[in-house]
């Protein structure tokens, strides 16, 4: 390990324009610079990239970054080049001439940060290049992909241990946003982290407002949501490619700049659509899970899930793509009772331990969606973190709303409880509700349950409403639900209620009424700017757009929304005052300073 040449705080301020480090960043960086292997778990938007970018500029040799996606590499390299940092990538997107040019730059010592896809290590030329190059740091980003216990296991990541043999003197840094204790142990074992330090930051993204709504007319709800937030960028995740295509087309037809993204599109179209979203030409990306890992767009203001995710890790990672600039953002999940059934259909090929892990994740996700208490607490507990309260603003839709008022649901509850009893207490809620609502599906007819007195007597509610009532009856102790198959059975209280015709009061309301919650409420978005500041903000935004187009980079690479807000508030009049604004370092000052000052003064450019 070679000694470092520059002070980390100086690098942070002069190159990246930040006044100080975020929590844990300095500790991680100091550990890496001292030569100690390190595993760091930090939430999306928590500043993971700086944990290797700052050391890369302090070390005399090169830093190699293993990253799973080409888009991430390109994005990171462009942003670094904007800050006059020599960075490059080697992956399948390069033609032969570009590849050779990058290799020559590496051999000449011109590159400080080299990004590689894990598959690139199978290339003998790449391995020879690394073996012949002084490497001070090996960084493995999205390190949870190493672990078979993780939610996004990638077999090619298991080969990364051999990378240590190519650069035995280099310190190793493993980074991820989502890793349980078991996954962290697997990462350290696979990478052979020696006497490693481990840092686990809080998983609490306090600036993201969590909200769940019943999935009633979801397209209309999403259109309503977008209309309430003109000009804001966001992502809508869907379960299937067809849903993505249909929803993207519908949103575009309604005047919203929306584009689709999924694995069924050509590489060229995916790249073009992603570029349009990153640059701000497209406002909404409608996507499957194929989109998002490593997308460093700080001004995403919302993430909507059209369908239930498969588990908390996936959900946490996807909502973490909102609010990376630290400003308020919204995570809205549209939840239908059929979502879990759809996911289980695709779990049929799993068995043994894999099936148990998938079921455990799905159960945790449904508990989050059906929660009656704080959603943030449930999400954080999955990652082993106790939630102490959110002092920075609204937490979730449940904490932000008064408790639901109890209502007399005696007649409807009697129907549901009677149907559970008459079908023999041998079925889950879905089957019981099929009988109650008059289904003639094969299974119901074969069991003779279309002849029951409770068959078809539940037409007053939709299936979603019956599921909600079954959940309320379970929560209040009238129904028991078996852990393995979700079979419903009557409790003693339920039998007494049916026998004695007792009144049943529950916090339940049919979904036919308008949604009670439209996240977010007060405090979950910034206060509006005064007219003068708003005018300057829009002028700076136009300036940023023009500068970004001229440089062929996304707008946020020039300045983040947070920096624009700070500029509009501070109204700097000199180069010295500009340097006091977060996000403005010497490189940005030299490149854009005069443009900003003229805009603040109202002068023509």
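-> sequence recovered:
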């Amino acid at each position: 390990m070679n000694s470092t040449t520059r002070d980390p705080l100086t690098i942070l301020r002069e190159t990246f324009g930040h006044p100080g480090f975020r929590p844990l960043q300095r500790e991680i960086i100091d550990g890496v610079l001292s030569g100690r292997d390190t595993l760091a778990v930090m939430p999306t938007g928590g500043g993971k990239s700086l944990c290797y970018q700052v050391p890369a500029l302090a070390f005399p040799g090169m830093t190699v970054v293993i990253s799973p996606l080409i888009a991430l590499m390109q994005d990171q390299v462009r942003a670094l080049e904007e800050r006059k940092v020599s960075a490059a990538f080697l992956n399948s997107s390069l033609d032969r001439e570009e590849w050779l040019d990058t290799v020559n730059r590496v051999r000449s010592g011109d590159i400080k940060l080299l990004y590689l896809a894990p598959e690139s290590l199978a290339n003998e030329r790449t391995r020879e290049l690394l073996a012949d190059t002084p490497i001070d740091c090996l960084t493995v980003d999205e390190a949870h992909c190493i672990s078979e216990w993780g939610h996004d296991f990638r077999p090619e990541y298991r080969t990364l241990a051999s990378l240590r043999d190519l650069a035995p003197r280099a310190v190793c840094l493993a980074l991820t946003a989502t890793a349980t204790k078991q996954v962290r142990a697997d990462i350290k074992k696979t990478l052979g982290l020696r006497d490693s330090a481990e840092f686990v930051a809080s998983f609490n993204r306090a600036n993201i407002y969590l909200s769940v709504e019943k999935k009633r007319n979801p397209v209309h709800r999403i259109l309503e949501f977008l209309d309430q937030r003109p000009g804001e960028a966001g992502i809508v995740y869907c379960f299937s490619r067809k849903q993505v295509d249909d929803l993207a087309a519908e949103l575009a037809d309604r005047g919203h700049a929306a584009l689709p993204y999924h694995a069924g599109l050509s590489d060229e179209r995916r790249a073009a659509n992603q570029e349009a979203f990153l640059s701000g030409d497209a406002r909404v990306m409608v996507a499957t899970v194929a989109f998002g890992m490593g997308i460093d767009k700080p001004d995403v203001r919302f993430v909507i899930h059209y369908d239930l995710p498969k588990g908390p890790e996936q959900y946490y990672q996807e909502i973490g793509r909102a609010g990376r600039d630290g400003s308020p953002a919204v995570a809205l999940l549209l939840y239908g009772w059929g979502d879990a059934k759809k996911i289980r259909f695709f779990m049929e090929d799993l068995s043994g331990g894999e099936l148990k892990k998938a079921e455990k994740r799905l159960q945790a996700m449904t508990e989050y969606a059906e929660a009656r208490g704080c959603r943030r607490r449930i999400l954080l507990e999955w990652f082993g973190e106790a939630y102490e309260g959110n002092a920075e603003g609204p937490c979730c839709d449940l904490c932000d709303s008064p408790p639901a008022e109890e209502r007399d649901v005696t007649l409807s509850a009697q129907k549901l409880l009677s149907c559970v009893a008459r079908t023999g207490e041998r079925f889950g809620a879905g089957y019981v509700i099929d009988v109650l609502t008059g289904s003639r599906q094969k299974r119901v007819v074969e069991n003779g349950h279309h002849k029951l007195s409770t068959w078809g007597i539940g037409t007053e509610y939709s299936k979603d409403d019956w599921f909600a009532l079954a959940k309320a009856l379970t929560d209040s102790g009238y129904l028991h639900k078996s852990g393995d198959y979700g079979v419903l059975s009557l409790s003693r209280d339920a039998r007494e209620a049916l026998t004695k015709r007792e009144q049943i009061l529950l916090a339940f309301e049919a979904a036919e009424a308008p949604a009670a919650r439209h996240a977010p409420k007060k405090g979950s978005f910034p206060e509006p700017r005064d007219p003068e500041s708003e005018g300057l903000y829009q002028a700076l935004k136009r300036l940023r757009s023009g500068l970004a187009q001229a440089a062929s980079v996304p707008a946020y690479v020039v300045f983040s929304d947070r920096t624009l807000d700070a500029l509009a508030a501070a109204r700097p009049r000199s180069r010295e005052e500009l340097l006091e604004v977060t996000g403005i370092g010497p490189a940005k000052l030299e490149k854009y300073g005069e443009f900003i000052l003229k805009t603040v003064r109202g002068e023509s450019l």
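The chain has 25 helices and 17 strands.
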